[in-house]
Amino acid sequence: MKTQKLTLTVVMVAILVVMAYIPAIPLGPVPLTIQNIGVMLAGAILGWRNGLLAIIIWLLMAALGLPVLTGGSGGIAPFFGATAGYIWAYPVAALFIGLSLQALTRFNRVNFVTILLTIIVFGVILIDLSGAVGLHITTNMPLPKALIFQLTFIPGDIVKSIVATILTLTLRQRFTALSHA
After folding, report:
1. Which of 3, 26, 38, 158 is deepest in the core (most CB within 10 A)?
2. Total number of domains in the chain
3. Phi–psi pair at 69, nearest 5 degrees
4. 105: domain CATH number?
5. How far apart are CA 143 and CA 141, in angstroms?
6. For residues 127, 103, 51 and 174, what is the CA-based torsion angle, rounded to 10 degrees?
């Protein structure tokens, strides 16, 4: 693994940990958090391999009990509680965002709209659908109610997707300029 990619992967894990301490907004069984923007950025900036690696390392740290999840929580309980569906979707989202953007790059189709749509499909829709299924399974919330509950996250998730897209475009341009210097 190249030094730059390794460094960026470690920095992404650190960003995810720092995001755990940004206060969440309680919305019932699942709070509105900022950490999913880190998942979006991991796949979009690091690519599928290192983005997935960053998310797995972060989740392993959480499973070991380190306070790296929202509100400084950690341990195995969040992986099987109300937030389980979201947590289990995080590595998949980073993977698919990275793979999609890699394919778009090959076809020279990376722009604001394609990045935003990719992030919305995998960083919002996939995670929220998985979160609804997780709520249904872990809290016995009826699936239709769990799906409707996800609508409360959509406005914030769209804003996070736009921010992630802007950061991705900016950082990709900077890294490209650095690699050609």
Report:
1. 38
2. 1
3. -100, 170
4. 1.10.1760.20
5. 6
6. -120
Instruction: Decide if 67 contacts 20 (C-beta within 8 A).
Output: yes
Instruction: Look up residue 22 and give its amino acid.
Output: I
> How far apart, in whole angstroms, are the C-alpha atoms of residue 116 and residue 102?
14
Q: Residues 17-43: pLDDT tens digits? A: 999 999 999 988 999 999 999 999 999
Convert the pLDDT of each residue in 63-110 to its tens digit.
Answer: 999 999 999 999 999 999 999 999 999 999 999 999 999 999 999 889
Residue by residue, DSSP assigns 43-93 as: HHHHHHHHHHHHHHHHHHHHHTT-S-BGGGB-SSGGGTSTTHHHHHHHHHH
Q: Return d(Cα 150, Cα 179) in angstroms, integer.
A: 41
Domain range holding 20? 3-180
